[in-house]
Design brief:
The complex is a heterodimer of chains A (about 300) and B (about 700). With about 300 residues, chain A is mostly helical. Chain A has helices at about 25-30, 35-50, 55, 90-125, 125-140, 145-155, 160-170, 175-185, 190-200, 200-240, 250-255, 265-300. The longest helix of chain A is centred in the middle third of the chain and has 37 residues, at about 90-125. Chain A starts with about 20 loop residues before the first helix and ends with a helix. By secondary structure, chain B is of the alpha/beta class. In chain B, helix 6 runs parallel beside helix 7. Classes of the chains: A mainly alpha (about 300), B alpha/beta (about 700). Chains A and B meet through helix 9 and helix 10 of A and helix 12, strand 18, helix 13 and helix 15 of B.
Chain lengths: ~300, ~700
Amino acid sequence: MNAPNLDVLASPKGGEVRAEGGLGRAIGRAFTANRLAVLGVGLIVVIVAFCFLGPLLYHTDQVYTNLTAANLPPSAAHPLGTDYLGYDELGRLMAGGQSSIEVGLAAAVMASAIGVAWGALAGYFGGVVDAVMMRIVDIVLSIPGLFILLFVATIIPPTLGTMIAIIALFAWLIPARLVRGEVLSLRSREYVQAVRVMGGRGGRIMLRHLIPNAIGVIVVQATFQVADAILIFAVLSYLGFGLSSPAASWGEMLSSGTPYLYDDYWWLIYPPGVAILLIVLAFNFVGDALRDALDVRLRQT
Amino acid sequence: MGELLDIKNLRTDIQQRRSVVHAVDGVSLTLGEGQILGLVGESGSGKTMTGMSIVRLLPPGGHIVGGSITLAGRELTALDDEAMRRVRGNEIGVVFQDPMTSLNPTMTIGNQIAEAVQGNRGAARERAAETLDLVGMPRARERLDNYPHQLSGGMRQRVMIAMALASDPKLLIADEPTTALDATIQEQILDLLESLRARLGMGILLITHDLAVISRYADQVAVMYAGRIVETGPTGPVLRRMRHRYTEALMAAVPRRDQDAGIDLYSIPGLPPDLSDPPAGCRFHPRCLFSQDDCGATDPPLVTVAPGHQHACLHPVTYTAGSTLKLTERASDGRRVIDARAVPLVEVRDLVKEYPVTAGLLQRRVGAVSAVAGVSFTLTPGETFGLVGESGCGKSTLGRALVALEKPTSGSIIFAGHDITAMPAGELRRIRRDLQLMFQDPYASLDPRMRVGAILREPLAIQRIGSRRDQDRRVGELLEEVGLRPSAAQSYPHEFSGGQRQRIGLARALALEPKLVVADEPVSALDVSIQAQILNLMRELRERLGLSYVIISHDLAVVRYMADRIGVMYLGKLVEIGPATDVSDHPAHPYTEALLRAVPDLTSAGRATPATNGASPARPAVRGELPSAINPPSGCRFRTRCPRAQELCAEVEPPLRPFGPHHLAACHFPLRAPLPVEAGLHAPASPGT
């Protein structure tokens, strides 16, 4: 790296010891050194490509049912067979993956956004504001989440948008707590005081200093949230509160395959099950590795 | 006499991911029984690694790769880990720097000391009480059941020493034992160590960065630079007639008590080398003013100049004309004559800051910590005011109030005619341009996620000064002003060394062209050679920009060197204030005197025989420690520790009385007679003059 020459007062050679490359580089190095992380990223790339690029190469009809072709075992025409409505299982796996990944990512982004804003405000203001805001979080956390999710899901018609909103509604609590803790410790840092001395307002302190410095925690948490959201979406779909047919999701595929569990229709169960397992595992690997990589930075500074 | 500790050609490496750091590279030392050997060097010089190699407590990746360590005739490097563990438990005691993190907070101190003792429980407890008593812990037996958090920093350090002593070691390794402590406590602890070595006849390896501490306490000294010993010998000759150029430069970089403020401190250029790839030849030659061609080519051997006095320099100090360091002299000493009629820039009136102490479920207010208790003083434009005192005396709180970071409980701070304690937020925001703060910790004061350019532009952006282009130009100017290259704007803070970061912090404080810069311990986190660079820079900028500084520091020598006027604080009160030279040369308040005496100083280096100068009977140590600020003592707050205290002190709070031009002190029984009231000129503390 072409490190800027940092010599002060014509510092002689051998003087500068700190040109260790950028922060990003160190984190990147630590991340790529972790085999599971690379595996996780690879899995995510493969699954995303399979779900979103697959249908371009492998055309199937996922709208009209064809009961004459129901529950066919894998064959040349249907590599993973067909389900009880005659949909091609492989094509359905792709379509279901699309909705699962979309819901997972969108819910995680939304939950993180709400959580970061909530946690940052509570942590920054502290005192009564903090106490009230965090007690709200505690209260919501104390209610069994699945129960409320099911309750809300029965009231609101299930679409992709409402599924995302419902899942995010409960997922923001954890990032809110995390960010609040982080901000609480960051706000007493000297560089934050320096901004106050310059006359900087709370908004600048929060947006330019507190949140950027908490970004590591936020990103790690968001990664885990994607995995969680995909799981919750699968659970809701499995219980029948997910998207309505003909829209597909992995959870719904599992659920519709369950009645045939004892008929040895394995192609209805294993593909969506394995898909859920792999994507959740992949995001968890990435999250773990990110956390370790950011720790490297903490150890250095 | 057989040496207690004999280290020969010790080499210790630390394996890192992509390189090997040669932390200790051929060090030889000897330490006799009952002696104190001072091992001195800057951070990264390998002094701690040398100490930790002896007890084999090295960081991950560290291991001894060569040389021998002999303790009382026994080779330590050949021992296996189990045998080494027994040596650590029985023959060598170690005292670490931070007494809070070195003690287990969940165990009573009695149990922790007893743990270090072999034998049955009862005997161990008895021994614990005995050692606690030995290290001067008052009511030692009762203290056995205390937990570390119930003790003050100084007492915790005594516990650490007691643990190290519990098994009667032959050798005590004290690694920066007093760096985290206040001056008066540091003195108590070091005096204790000194008396212990005489009573117990053990050898002490005193590892420190502080040359002044070495000069007062060590019999022998070894100066380390970049993993090697560059000069070693009896303390007096080494510090007074040093031969190595590094020792010379180091000594010239430390402000002394009698430092002529007209002479710049010597600042060693550059930074210590990277020990994974040290420079060839003499390791100091890239930073040495006297280096010649052969310095980079030949590795200088240790040369003996007098019995026991060795150095490794090809062109040593010869004490002939022109061979010593030439220091830049300034036209004037930069001190301002205090002009009583000048319109004050800042006027602090009866400033009080209390923090409520709450308890119970309902957070009921049960008391208050009195951080600043009625402080008044004025500051004229262009003046440098030094604020000294021990930690917890309220000096930082006062500094933060001056830049309106802290809202005082009562009293006022008039800046340029406006009271900044009672000012609408919008107006205060504008006036902040003139009041800036420079922080202590160069690592925590810069946002790690911002480039230096953005850090320096931020104050301009906040105050909406100039266009983006103007701001960028200003950033370039600021970097140049503090001695950094313009390209530094593109880098992140972590790419810079501590001293360079402190320069960036100073540049940021100057961005808004303030009238007053409050510098809170600006150099206490820096190494000696870097500290001199920053102090010289601050002096230079003061002259060029007409700044006023308030310099807050625990280091009297630094404050005396920088300031026109000094204020001494004790437990929230300003106990003495006056011209810098007057206060430090002729203090009136016993606390000021105690503070001055407690800090070892290089001025006397080697003057007395080193073995006795530590315990000179003329030095009445301040007793005890800073009382709690929750219930400060009545009357004079210093009375509980004052050797001159009488009944009156507990009853009546002493007023500030004049002791010379602009020199005030608050004491009933001062060290010299106060001026008669009418001759006391004006009293700067009283408002309305």
